[in-house]
Write a structure and sequence with these properties.
There is one protein chain. The chain has about 280 residues and is α/β, with parallel strands linked by helices. Helices cover about 40% and strands about 20% of the residues. It is built from twelve helices and nine strands. Strands 1, 2, 3, 4, 5, 6, 7, 8 and 9 form a nine-stranded mixed β-sheet that branches. The structure holds S-adenosylmethionine. The site of S-adenosylmethionine (SAM) has 21 residues, from α1 and α6.
């Protein structure tokens, strides 16, 4: 398997093909818990101003656009898959959010927006693992206002390595040692994995100030398969598993075991240097 990204057209057509059933997966216990734990962390980082402008980068069928628009934010979803966008548009119309949510066909690696217009950028559930991450993140930083926040989720190196141990020992070792950084994941072809340190470095290199990194899918990744994928479960079980996942997600010693790593980072304000030229110092 080559150590490179899938071509853009292939990514788009892979998502086109699953766009009609993507939301079915979101109904499983694993996905619901992922969403709940994500929300518990994300809600404290969102802009205070209702009406703030949010970019949902690689926003797919609008899993996050809809609730964010429902909270009063103005949300622009961009995605490379026309099929995923169609689903998102249908939902935006059905929920009567067309005055606050918009969906547009765009490549994250080359966004068509002016600089410094968004208050918050969300890039959830792995787009940075299937596109050119430094390029796409550079674009997100460009369109983000100084002081604004980015939240992103990528595939976790060690969780995916350990998952390969029984079926492909060589690949598991290569992923864990860093000899390889791409693996097949969820039928999406080559997916780039990150360790917590690599993820932090990617963001720091873009001049961002890292606020937090969480693991997600630590506990749910270890549930029995039937339970993970269950579409029907009672509220009590959902609460219990969500609490377990939240605790694992915040435990530093478990961070690397996250199937997903989620990062929150801030774009600093431009600070003018105080130096000899300052009138105060003559
Ligand atoms: C796993 S889905 C996640 C969708 C959504 N963020 C969520 O949390 O449900 C990944 C999405 O990223 C999009 N994507 C991948 N590469 C992209 C690129 N270069 N530009 C724009 N979107 C991209 C895919 O089309 C897909 O809709």
């Amino acid at each position: 398997m080559p150590e490179k990204l899938e071509p853009l057209e292939k990514v788009a057509s892979l998502f086109d093909a699953i766009s009609g059933v993507f939301d079915t997966w979101l109904e499983t216990l694993q996905a619901k818990v992922y969403g709940e734990v994500t929300w518990q962390h994300l809600q404290h980082l969102l802009p205070e101003l209702s009406g703030a402008l949010v970019l949902d980068a690689g926003g797919g069928t609008g899993r996050w656009t809809l609730p964010l628009a429902g909270k009063g934010y103005r949300v622009v979803l961009c995605d490379i898959s026309p099929g995923m966008l169609r689903q998102a548009c249908d939902k935006i119309r059905r929920e009567d959010l067309t005055d606050r949510a918009w969906a547009t066909l765009q490549n994250l690696e080359n966004l068509a927006f002016a600089g410094e217009i968004f208050d918050f950028v969300l890039c959830e559930d792995g787009p940075l693992s299937i596109c050119d991450a430094p390029k796409a993140l550079g674009e997100m930083v460009r369109v983000l206002k100084p002081g604004g926040m980015i939240w992103a989720a990528v595939a976790g190196r060690f969780a995916l390595s350990l998952r390969r141990l029984q079926r492909d020992f060589e690949e598991a070792v290569a992923l864990a040692t860093g000899a390889r950084s791409f693996t097949r994941y969820k039928g999406l072809g080559n997916t780039r994995v990150f360790s917590p340190a690599e993820l932090r470095e990617l963001f720091v290199e873009q001049g961002l100030e890292v606020i937090a990194i969480y693991g997600n899918g630590i506990a749910t990744g270890r549930l029995a398969a039937g339970m993970q994928d269950a579409a029907q479960f009672d509220e009590a079980l959902f609460r219990q598993v969500s609490e377990l996942e939240r605790q694992c997600s915040e435990e530093p010693s478990l961070l690397g075991l996250g199937e997903y790593l989620q990062i929150a980072a801030r774009k600093p304000y431009k600070v003018s240097p105080v130096g000899n030229e300052s009138p105060i110092f003559g």
